[in-house]
Amino acid sequence: MNVTETTLQNVAIIGTGSYLPEKILTNSDLEKMIDTSDEWIRSRTGIEQRHIARDDEYTSDMAAVAAERAIESAGISAEDIDIIIVGTLSPDMQFPNTACFVQGKIGAKNAICFDIEAACSGFLFSLETAKQFLATGTYSTALVIGAEKLSSVTDWEDRGTCILFGDGAGAVIATNKTDQNKIIASHLGSDGKLTHLLNIPGGGSINPASLQTIEDRMHFMKMTGNEVFKHAVRCMCKAIKQVTAKCDMTIDDIDWVIPHQANMRIIQAIASRFDNSIDKFIINLDQVGNMSAASVPVAMDEAIKSGKIKKGDKILSVVFGGGFTWGAMIIEW
Ligand code: COA
Questions:
Q1: Domains present along the chain, CATH in parentheses
Q2: Quick one: which of 1, 40, 158, 309 has the fewest CB in 10 Å?
Q3: SS3 label, residue 102
Q4: 44 lines ligand 1 (CB under 6 A)
Q5: What is the pLDDT of residues 307-317, one digit of tens each?
């Protein structure tokens, strides 16, 4: 008997929520801080503005608000949650994990908590991990969050990176207790030979914090932008092909694509390789920039709450981030 096929349970998303900090940093604001222009940023990235958290507003604070909104939209209580997973590259602290901070803030006292660090792919890696726990019946209800305070790891003197990033959080409640929608297929990938192209070199075991690492600005994100661009397009196209092939679909069967919101030109390059399907792509990066692991769940929540995504729609989310890591998932809503 094929045990897995006969015993795996359906996994559905029953609630979503998101949070963006109040403060907005526009391209014109950046013009006053570094040598750049609104025109350059718009034409190279599509970004017009991004949200920036207050100094006393942490990744777990944003995650907790997004979580509370997701809990409310799912119609459950925090105590119903069995597992909290936070995808983030900008945790509150190196440890304990940010999911524990969130648990304390929302009172989800029955949950086990851990983070997943897969950079901008963090939310999809976290949701896929939760799916495994739920499909096997180990747990029933998961709170999955993508949350980032990227402003705390952005080098505001580096015009090649600081124009790209923003802060925010998105969350979903996933459960095996209903068939109201379903995760149909997923595909994840990683390439550890390319860790040098996108990283924060300081503060880990290779370069522990020291006066020198601070002087060398090693605690901020470093990126070889044009190389990352090429790999992002290639890996996300590959992930779309692999996940659709898994369920005998093509892009024609998909109603909405929720891509990682890295750069409008990356999204256009991907869409052009799939029958010029740009109208299917849900895009909010012009308003929020690249929020790494928070990008997909925030865009998903906005598209659901605005009524864009409707019951029965097939959604394909595709992501790419440092590592490199990438992945895609199809959900029938
Ligand atoms: N404003 C004005 N000029 C800028 C600038 C800025 N903010 N940032 C870089 N430049 C300049 C460079 O100094 C360079 O000048 P030069 O030709 O005189 O040397 C020129 O613009 C081109 O730089 P380059 O880095 O080749 O630009 P690009 O077309 O690759 O665009 C990115 C830069 C960062 C927008 C682009 O590479 C990108 O989006 N990469 C992917 C980033 C990403 O999405 N990362 C996250 C993935 S999860």
A1: 3-179 (3.40.47.10), 184-332 (3.40.47.10)
A2: 1
A3: helix
A4: yes
A5: 999 999 999 99
